[in-house]
Structure formats: C-alpha cells, structure tokens
Design brief:
This protein has 151 residues and is an alpha/beta fold. It is built from five helices and five strands.
Length: 151
C-alpha cells in the first residue's frame, strides 16, 4: 500500500511549483521515505519530462523521479487551493492548471508503472475526483483512494 504513511496536504497554497515540491518533499523526507537527493531528482525530472495531465477539465500532476532517491515506496498527495502551472506530459509547450498532485516515491521501477495505471483510472472517475477536490481529512482521503482501487 503506497498510501499507508498518510502523507496528505489538503487545500495548500504554494505560490509556484518549486514551493509545492519542497513542501511535498519535506513530508516524504520526514516520513523517512526519500533521501535528501530526492528534491533535486524530482525537480530535474519535471523540467525534462513534465507530468501535467488534464482529464475532464481537471489538472493533475504526477511528479516522480528515479528509485535511487527513494528509501521506501510511498505517495504524497496534495490538493491545491489555487492551481499551479505544470507543463503537459505530452506537449511541453502546453500548460495545465493543476489542482491535484500525486508525488510518487517508488523504490522499484515496476511499482511506478502499476501506480501510474491506477492513478490514470482514478482520474477518469469524475465522482471520485469531485470528492478528492473537497476532501479535507486524511482518513477520508485514504478511504476514497482505497474505494477507487488505488493502493
């Protein structure tokens, strides 16, 4: 289960992508899931291979980096009070207003593929996404994610 550390940030107000990444990184670091090098890895990878994705008018981001920066597999979630701009994963020149962020810390590459597939399925479930946008409590989030088949 990649959400068992309950690393959630609800309705936060970062002013830019770097501030968002730092806040999420600190959650993962404090939970002893990632190494100090993780923040540089995630920032560099996002600039080269953006992770913004728009599904049904909602902006998502799935920042991640190489497993060498990870101690224990985990996902950190953040909902944003105000959207942050991310480049589209299929077109760097297209920008997406992201509201929901799932920062992946996977200790082995095959886990990354599995969680990405599960998340993309979740993103297509409008009812669950509407609930995620409103969610303010960790236990609600974990129940929502589990009921959607994401683990």
């Amino acid at each position: 289960m990649f959400f068992n550390k309950e690393l959630c940030l609800f309705h936060i107000k970062p002013t830019n992508q770097n501030q968002l990444f730092e806040e999420m990184f600190q959650k993962l670091l404090n939970a002893e899931c990632v190494k100090d090098s993780y923040i540089d890895g995630i920032t560099k990878r996002e600039s080269e291979y953006p992770t913004g994705l728009e599904v049904n008018g909602i902006g998502f981001a799935i920042p991640h980096t190489d497993s060498e920066h990870v101690i224990q597999s985990q996902v950190c979630f953040a909902s944003l009070e105000e959207p942050i701009i991310f480049s589209d994963m299929t077109d760097k020149d297209r920008f997406i207003q992201v509201q929901l962020v799932f920062m992946l810390a996977m200790s082995s590459p095959h886990e990354q593929v599995d969680i990405l597939q599960n998340l993309v399925e979740l993103f297509q479930n409008q009812e669950k996404i509407n609930q995620l946008l409103k969610c303010k409590k960790t236990d609600e989030f974990v129940h929502l994610i589990n009921s959607a088949g994401v683990y």
